Structure formats: structure tokens, C-alpha cells
Amino acid sequence: MNIVVLVKLVPDLVEELAIDANGVSLDPTYLRLIINESDDHAVEQGILLKERGGATVSVVAPDMEGIDDVLYAAAAKGVDRLIKLAGDFGDGVNNHALARAAASAIRELQPDLVLTGVQATNDLDGSVGPLLAEYLGMPYVGYVAGVTLSAGKVVVHKEYPGGLIGEMAATLPAVLGVQAAEQPPRYVAVSKVRQAMKSSSLEEQAVAELDSSGSVAVSRMFQPEAAGRATMLEGDVETVAARLVEIFKEAGVL
Amino acid sequence: MTDAVQEHAFYDKVLTATPDSERLKRCLQCGSCSGICPFGYAMDYPPHKLIAMLRADRIAPLFKSETVWLCMACYACTSICPAQIPVTAALLATLKTELLLMGKVPAELQKALENSQRYGNTLGESPRKRAAWTKDSPVPVPVLAQTKAPVDVLWFVGDYGSYHPRVQSVSRAMAKIFQALGVNFGILGPEEGSDGDIQCLAGERGLFELLAQKNGKAFGKYKFKEVVTTDAHAYNAFKNMYPREGYHFAVKHHTQFLAERLDQLKPLLRREVKSRVTYHDPCCLGRINDNNIYEEPRQLLQAIPGVEIVEMTHNRANTICCGAGGGGNWLDGFVWERARGRTSEWRVKEAVAAGAEVLAVACPYETPRFEDAVKTIQEAGQMQVKDIAELLAEAMGD
Fold first, then answer.
1. How far apart (Å, rounded) are the C-alpha atoms in residues B4 and B12?
2. DSSP reduced 3-state for B5
3. Do the two domains B107-259 and B269-396 of this chain adopt the same fold?
4. A10, A13, A14: which to substitute to probe chain B, counting the most B Cβ within 10 Å?
5. Secondary structure of chain A: what % helix, strand, coil (to 5)?
6. Residue B68 pLDDT more than 60?
7. DSSP string over B186-237
8. By the number of CB atoms within 10 A of the CB, which of A140, A145, B49, B118 ranks highest?
9. Does the distance separating the beta carbons of A191 and B103 come in below 8 Å?
10. pTM (2 decimals)?
11. Mean pLDDT, residues B73-87 taken together
């Protein structure tokens, strides 16, 4: 079983975000990148599948600041191959470009199963999983929390709003958008990461020119602005409720 | 590594964990360690049983049990052991290390360790904002990277003193005292990182080394006569663990530093703080590594006009841990599920029994822990929890 996990980095929200002078992107001065949370779960799910039934797990990630640490941590957890996509990812790319670049690298790895996080905070042009599946010509299931592999197919638990869980099967190879691994991402001790730095190697895969076509164009990026449109309703419950009904009727929603 | 090899290697790791680990072989199974352990009753393998299991080569069950995480590295077992076996540092911490290497750690603590790795503090706060608390300080707090001038005192504020809203008030009190005494001091601010004491005693030795290197490097950049810290854990780490990593410098806990200046301090304590005060001895200042700072905090309290000191049943070397050490601060849910009790609550009950109105502390984890405990112990009523620095600043008036 050959499992490939696509991982990307997103802005770390522990640092305050600032808008760049260009007005359409984040100011990179104090920007610090961190592994996308659901990608971290995808890595964990890959390792769990390996531990359960045997597999080779490769992590593929765009070359951005901090990516080496992310890859070595994955190796320390049990990932076999670390593949860095070498290209012009420095200032960040949209998901269309990332999915195209990753698809050509992942295709060469001939995966049975591709895992990636179901969403990320910087998904401006849709999540990366469905795009990747389209470029790879594979089926896609998103919001996955539970994966079982059997001959030629994968059975997944898919989360729906309202606490509903669906069980469905897809033929392999397939792409899964992981919402949550079956257990939280494991801790990796500093000494194990250091060991991984010595014992594992980072493979570099050159990426042809990035193609971001099909994406959205950002016209303005801004911090949430106070609008001052709120009206406070005073009075007891009956009065407030009656006034609410009037307002809804005026607005045409009742 | 096969399981059997890993198991046997574990015994060797215990025997070489500290310079005096071989003393483990002297164990007569008296059981004092397990008896004095505040959570021994809830552990699958309290210390003496752990030793028996090691000797019987029954190691696999130790890796399956998770109750070693009840150990808050308070050193009660180490301190009582008649054979002077380093139970906490060699035995319990090494078992935690082994579990961490396997990725087995309760989720609450995992987050604190991951935060320490990434941000250099357990709280997961921005390292760039480490000195943000100084904006609300009543007196200026110089950050060495900005002043670039030599100081007498490099004040190590610590994670909680820097970021925890409750403990920031202790930092502000200390800044006021430094200024009142005319001390030439400065802080590292964003260059300071977690001291690593709790991470080390939680078994994450690699993380401790990383944190020690970071602080060691920052200390090396500036000229100072001594380090003074308001963090009892930092004190223990700097005094006993940093030298092993190659970082040597003079360090004092703030209660030591201030007790040395009692003559200068006393005339400044003009306002009466009329209350019965009991003092909780932090493990880190007392029995751990024979740090033995017992009298200085009491001398300071005694110097405050109106204060009457009362003692709790367990005091000095016999103190009961507040529950924070060795990672315990991030295991509240884990501990509660297994032990159905908190040592901080036990301690507050003792303070009530001693008739105290104020529970005085000298370690940053204790203020929030004991304040939480006061809320759950009805008899504690309006008991106040205050760091000695806060009581001194209060007695100085405005």
C-alpha cells in the first residue's frame, strides 16, 4: 500500500496578522507559518494506516519557510519518504497552483491512497483536495474521520453537519480530505526529531512553472471592520419578541 | 528495536539517568516512597512497585500503564527514601521519557510541550509579546536588547510571570520593589524562553536541552552580575540543571534576593497588612535538590507590619506540592479522573485549618492553582492567595 499525504503551511494565528501595503495579501514581515491543522491529521491518519496494515507513507509539501521542520517531525512520527516540491512557493500560492504542482509529483509516486487536510484557513479558492483529485483523475471524499482499507477499495466515515456520519466506499486510488484522524496527532519528542534530521533525507522534486489559472483574484484584503449597524432592543422579553417579529416582517423574512 | 530489547534497554536507561542512579539497587522495598506520594494510591505502579517490576524484568506492563503521569515531580519520594535513591529524576522521569518517545502522553500535557517547542512557552503565546506585560507596569522595566547597558540583576520573569494575567500582577509588584530598592535591573523580554524545568521533569529531556540552549545563548549576550528569578522552577533549573548543560551563572530566587536586603526593605514597608498569613513552601525552593530556601520567605513575611504567620501541618521539607510540577499543571483533567482530588485543594484545606486569611506563595503556578482551589473549598471563604512580592508591594503603599 502506497500512501501519499499532501501537506501545506498556513499562517500561524498566534501572531497577529497584518495586511500588506499592496492591500491584497498578508504582510509577510512577522508572518510565521505552521502546518495546516487538518493536514496534520492527514499525516496521523497515514501513519495509523501504516501501523495497522503496513504501508509506505510519503509526505509531499511545497518548499516554504519552516517546511523542513514539518517534514522531519513527520519522519520522527513514522513517515517513510519526505518530498519537498521545489518551486516558487515563497510568497504563497493559491490552491489551484498547488494542486497542479502536487498532482504531477504525486502521479509519479503511483499512490494507492492520497490524503490531505479537508480545509485550511487560507483556502481562498476552494480546498485543495477536490482540485487534486480532479487533476489526478481520482474519486474524492471529504470531511473524512475514519479510514479502513481493503482489497482495491477504501471505506470511510464522512462527517455531515448535525452529528450525522455516513459510511461510504471508494475505489482505489482515491483522494481523501481528512477532517480528523482516528486519534489526535501524536506527540513527537525533540530527541526523535533530532534523530530524524540525521537519519532521513529530504527529496526535492522540481516543479515546472506554477499555474494558478482558474483561481479567484483578490481585490481587497482587510481586517474586520466595525459597521455600527446593530440596534439594541430594550424592554422585557414580550416587548423585545414582538418588536423582533415586526422587524422580520418588515425585512420580508417572515 | 524489538520489544524485549527496548524493555531491557529501559532498565539500563534508569540506571544511568543520573550520576547516582545505581543506588536503585539498594532498594529494600520499604515502601516509604509510595506511602508519601500524594497520588501513590491512584498509581498502578507507585515507585516501590516500579522498582520491583524492573528487578523482575516485567517492564512491558509499565509501558502500558499511564498512571506515572500522576507524578508531579514533587520529590517527596526522593526526599524520604532511606537509601537516597533518586526516585523522581532517575526512575519516574525516565519512565515518562520512554512514554514520550512512544508518543504516549495525555493530550493536555502534549499541548503544553508542543507550545514549548514551537513558541518557547507553555501557554502557546507569541514569543514576540513576552514583554507586553511591562506596558501596564507601574515602573519602567528595561528590556536588555533595547538598553544594551550592563545590569546588576538580570531578572528572569518566566512563562507565567510574562503571560498569565494573574501572575503578571506578581511581575508588576516585583518591578515596583526593584525600583524602590534602587536595583539596576533588566529583563530579556522576547529573548527569554521557558526555563525548561517542568518539561524536563515531565520526561522531555530533549526539549529541556533545546530551551536551555536558547536561554543560555541569550544570557551570554548581556553583562550582568546575577540572575534573579520570580519563578521557583526557573531557580531550580538554573541552579541545578543548567550547569550540566554548560551554563554557569549566579542565580537567586526573589525571596533570597530580598531577604538579603531586609535592612533596606524594612523601612519601606510602611503600610500595615493586618492578616494571619500562612506560607506554602514550593517543592522547587525546598526539598528538591536540597535547595532549602525555607527561612527567607518567612523572614520577608515577618517584616511586613501587621502580619501574623501561622504554619500549616505540612511545611518546609514536608510540604505538599500544589500539583503543578513535572507537567502536573497541564494534567488537571487526567489527575481528577484518576485521583478524584487535587493537592491544591488539600493544601487550601490545611490553610483553613491553620486559621489563615492569606495563603502566601512564592512560585508562579501557585497563585492561579490555589485561587481555583479556594473557589471549590467552601470553608476557604474569602481566603486570599498572594505572592510574597505582592504582599511586600502592598506594604510599601503607593
1. 13
2. helix
3. yes
4. A14
5. 30, 25, 40
6. yes
7. EE-GGG-----HHHHHTT-HHHHHHHHHHHHHHHHHS-EEEEEES-HHHHHI
8. A140
9. no
10. 0.94
11. 98
Among A116, A130, A112, A115, which residue's Cα sits nearest to residue A172? A112
Residue A87 falls inside a structural domain: yes
pLDDT digits over B215-270, tens only? 999 999 999 999 999 999 999 999 999 999 999 999 999 999 999 999 999 999 99
CATH assignment of B3-101?
1.10.1060
At residue A62, the 3 state secondary structure works out as strand
* Chain A residues with CB-CB distance to B206 below 8 A: 189-194
Cell 464522512, residue located: A158
Cα distance between residue B42 and residue A60, in whole Å: 45
CATH annotation of B269-396: 3.40.50
User: Residue A82 belongs to what domain range?
Assistant: 2-206
Predicted complex ipTM: 0.92
Peptide bond before A130: cis, by omega within 30 degrees of 0?
A: no
CB contacts of B110 in chain A (<8 Å) are 184, 187
Do the Cβ atoms of B351 and B383 come closer than 8 Å? Answer: yes
Is residue A57 domain-resident? yes
User: What's the CA gap between B81 and B332, in Å, rounded?
Assistant: 27
Question: For residues A215 and B353, which has the higher predicted lDDT (pLDDT)?
Answer: B353
Read off the DSSP letter of residue B133: G
Query: Rounded to a whole number, what is the distance in Å from the CA of A60 to chain B's nearest CA?
Result: 22
B105 touches chain A (CB under 8 A): yes
Which residues are bridge partners to B318 per DSSP? none
Distance CA(B371)–CA(B373), nearest Å, equals 5
The verdict on residue A253 lying in a domain is no
Grid cell digits, residue B10: 529501559
The answer to whether A1 and A39 have CB atoms below 8 angstroms apart is no
A36: domain CATH number?
3.40.50.620
Number of domains in chain A: 1
Write down the residue that cell numbers 488537571 correspond to: B332
**Three-class DSSP category at A146:** strand
A212 lies in some domain: no
Q: What is chain A's mean pLDDT, rounded?
A: 95
- Look at residues B33, B28, B80, B92 and name the one whose alpha carbon lies nearest to residue B55: B28
Query: What is the Cα–Cα distance from B343 to B322, expressed in whole angstroms?
Result: 6
- Under a CB-based contact definition with an 8 Å cutoff, are residues A136 and A106 in contact? yes
What pLDDT score does B1 carry? 53
Give the number of beta-carbon pairs within 8 Å between A and B. 39
Which pLDDT score, from 0 to 100, does residue B6 have?
A: 75
The closest alpha carbon to B254, from B394, B326, B156, belongs to: B156
Distance from CA of B213 to the nearest CA of A (A): 13
423582533: which residue's cell? Answer: A244
User: Over 80: is that where the pLDDT of B4 sits?
Assistant: no
Sheet containing B358-361: order of strands: B307-310, B275-279, B358-361, B384-387
Which CATH fold would you assign to the domain B107-259? Rossmann fold (3.40.50)
Checking if the pLDDT of A225 tops 90, the result is no
Q: Least CA distance to B211: which residue of chain A?
A: A190
d(CA B44, CA B66) in angstroms, rounded, equals 8
